[in-house]
Design a protein that fits this description.
By secondary structure, the chain is of the alpha+beta class. Helix content is about 55%, strand content about 15%. It contains six helices and six strands, in the order αββββββααααα. Helix 2 (about 75-100) packs parallel to helix 4 and helix 3 (about 105-160) runs antiparallel to helix 4 (about 165-200). The longest helix is centred in the middle third of the chain and has 55 residues, at about 105-160.
């Protein structure tokens, strides 16, 4: 489903408020925005906690539960790639079904199929980039989690040795555990996205039970004797895996 565009009316009310990522981490504060003449926000301006200024395009921004949320690069790309993959596969499935029922001439089928193949090739290139980003981010989080585990262990040792107060310990452990929780949520999102991408790359298309029943109705005498469309050299039908549900 397409995301609703950001509007000035909504975003301007949040200037000065904290900006987060989808996993609860603080990005900074919203200090300004840039918009088009139609009132849609083109990008937001965020001041990070170390006083750097970031200009973030609206495609990476959403308003959720009264908060400004900024998506990481990999998630922005994933949204585009998965949506494009799904559209392309649905179009290919529809084209194959029409051709199998002799509803379009072979020449038209061939032309449309080649165009869709070209579109899919571009999406696959983007998918390679996405997989690289996902792997890199997973490795980065795994490394960060090891450092957090080490910090938590050292903190507990210091507390048990009486080197720091209970108040300091509780404050510190809360920050460290919160960081690990955010990492855990992002890791789950990364792995879920990777699984979706893999299922699309294998050509899996979901068909509801209702649709499947309609497609499997007994063929009439005329349909039984209907000739199948001729195969076109150099073009293979897409693999379709039926998933009941």
């Amino acid at each position: 489903m397409a995301r609703a565009p950001l509007t000035v009316d909504v975003v301007q009310q949040m200037i000065g408020e904290t900006v987060y990522d989808p996993y609860g981490r603080v990005i900074g504060k919203l200090v300004s925005l840039e918009s088009d003449i139609d009132g849609t926000v083109q990008q937001i301006v965020v001041e990070t906690e170390n006083k750097d200024i970031k200009f973030i395009p609206s495609e990476a921004v959403e308003v959720s539960e009264g908060r400004i949320i900024v998506w990481p690069e990999w998630k922005v790309l994933a949204y585009k790639v998965l949506a494009s993959y799904q559209r392309a596969l649905k179009r290919l499935k529809g084209l194959e079904e029409m051709y199998s029922r002799n509803e379009i001439p072979a020449a038209v089928y061939q032309e449309l199929r080649r165009k869709l193949n070209q579109s899919l090739a571009r999406v696959r290139d983007e998918a390679k980039k996405l997989k690289s980003l996902i792997k890199s981010r997973i490795d980065e989080i795994d490394d960060n989690n090891l450092k957090l585990d080490r910090a938590i262990a050292n903190l507990k040792v210091s507390y048990m040795a009486g080197e720091i107060s209970e108040k300091a310990y509780k404050t510190a452990i809360e920050y460290l555990r919160s960081a690990k929780d955010s990492n855990t949520r992002e890791l789950e999102d990364l792995k879920k996205t990777g699984a979706k991408l893999e299922s699309l790359e294998t050509g899996t298309i979901e068909i509801s039970k209702t649709a499947k029943k309609k497609e499997s109705k007994p063929a009439s005498r005329e349909e039984k004797h209907e000739a199948k469309p001729p195969a076109i050299e150099g073009i293979q039908p897409i693999p379709v895996k039926v998933i009941e549900g």
